[in-house]
Write a structure and sequence with these properties.
By secondary structure, this protein is mainly alpha-helical. It has 25 helices and six strands. A six-stranded parallel β-sheet has the order 3-2-1-4-5-6. α24 (564-567) links the parallel β4 (551-555) and β5 (587-590). α3 runs parallel beside α8 and α4 runs antiparallel to α8.
Length: 631
Amino acid sequence: MFGLEMLYFQLILLGVFAVATVVGYLLIKNVPSLLHTPLMSGMNALSGITVLGALSATAAGFAAQSVLAKVLSAIFGILAVALAMVNVVGGFAVTDRMLAMIVKKKAENQNFIYVAALLAAAGVIAVIGCFTLMGDNAQYAYLALCVVLSVGVLAGIALMGNVKLSKVGNRVSAICMLLSIVLTIVYQGSYQVYSAWPIYIGIVIGAVVGIILAKKVGMIQMPQMVALLNGLGGAASAVVGAFAMFGIGSVLNNTGAGYFAKITAAIALAVGMMTLTGSLVAAGKLHKILPQKPVVWKGHPTIQTGTLIVMLAGIAVFTALGTSEELGLVGGMFAVVLCTSAFFGVAFAIRVGGADMPITISLLNSFSGVAGAIAGLAIGDLLLVSIGGIVGASGLLLTQIMCKAMNRSLLAILTGKTTASSANNVAVPSENVVKEVAEATEPAAKLPAEEEPVAAEEIVSAEENPAKQLSGAKEVIIVPGYGMAIAQAQHTVKKLADKLTAGGTKVKYAVHPVAGRMPGHMNVLLCEADVDYEDLYEMEEINPEFEHADATIVVGANDVLNPAAREAEGTPIYGMPVLDVDKCKNIYIFNYDLKPGYAGVENPIYARKEGVHLYLGNAAETLEKFISDMN
């Protein structure tokens, strides 16, 4: 392989994976939390790099002599290519759409970067066009281009570390991805990829579906979208792994790579299927098709452990016995790994509650990249290995950030030991504040009559007119939460902020890292309402300002500002960093009701007798009335 002994080439592949993961991790650390949602969708797009493996595997199977092999390769090849292309096109398109909401002004040097990127792309295309003239040296040119394109993707991620250049960075990565696909199709290698017509059907189907998804998805649905794309990336990697398990499309298999190719192929199938089913469950919970509360089966840990053991046993048996002469055993172990890994994905995701979804989505995002990288190891594709490693690093970093922000251990979340038991650990500040613990986002139509939200006038009747008092504030902090997203109140929040600003008030937005259902979700929703990203502040930056602010406006937020996190030991949120809203002298709360958030812990702010003004009900409606009361 490239003039190297197979052992050395395998070591190089592992080295590329390690280096790409570390470098990607270091670059992604510089991406601000404001851009974490676009970052995740961008990583979804990059996880579509699995399309390279799908292209090669489809071409290899289509070149077989057997008619059955051709038909099966065409069917599953189209499936894998289409799934990966949905990720590529949909991921980059929706990322560009979000960044356009956040970054509305052109950066000073963006034209220079575009020109440099296009010139580099032209150079890559020129080299690709000369492959037929290079003879045996074409493989070295291919290797060099793989390095160039991997560096290009890293450059795109580095640009995302600068908000003003983030849109440029996304487009640079997209250009590199497009060139990677062209390179794989044109470079012949062991197979003539360009001659396998099914790949073009898959490319077109995937691109069309990706464009439709990117255009139609609403910003409130972005967590579901990212979870779905995570799953599609995992599915594409699983199909590539399955091809490799049967010796199709793997350069390593054809050159006697032995155990390395077998074990990586089986692991690619396993991780890909876990990512697919786990992501579908997560998307179902986020879309409220499945229960948002943790679902814990009887003997759940035993079931998970047993499934994992059987899955690992299947991988071990396949690695030891899976050869082309033992097709029956290969098929049997393939079925074992496929079914157990798919079930394991469901088992670990179903027991995670809605409050922990930001962590789960980040982890699945990492899985989608790891699955692609392992598939690359199985088929010997350097680009797939390197870019898959970058995606895996991104998801891992975001998972760490979310765990830290929620003061949760990843193991506790995956085993359901946080939200599952929260109802038994509630800190109650006042007997008269809330009657029972329930989901804060339950629709009004489903509430019993006695639990209808109390009208704002009834709660604030003791005050002269809090709305007019707010008009004279000099500094106001707005705290958005998932309830704002549910009520689609971000535009009304912006309307209130504009009214305050017009009266000379300085308005800032305090965004908690886990507000919403995925990292950075609140930032995207606010920017969708035309809020300037420079007015959005991270928790560490804004917390010292609460005690000096004239007022704080809370819209649909609860757990992220609950002071019980600092004092109520034994509760699910104890130790979780929260916004210091309780230190502000005047707090205006626009929540649906007084029930606890997902953590099930009462909020002592509600029981405070001075300086707290409660406006309960649909936030979009109560805010509109509040604005009219300010006049």
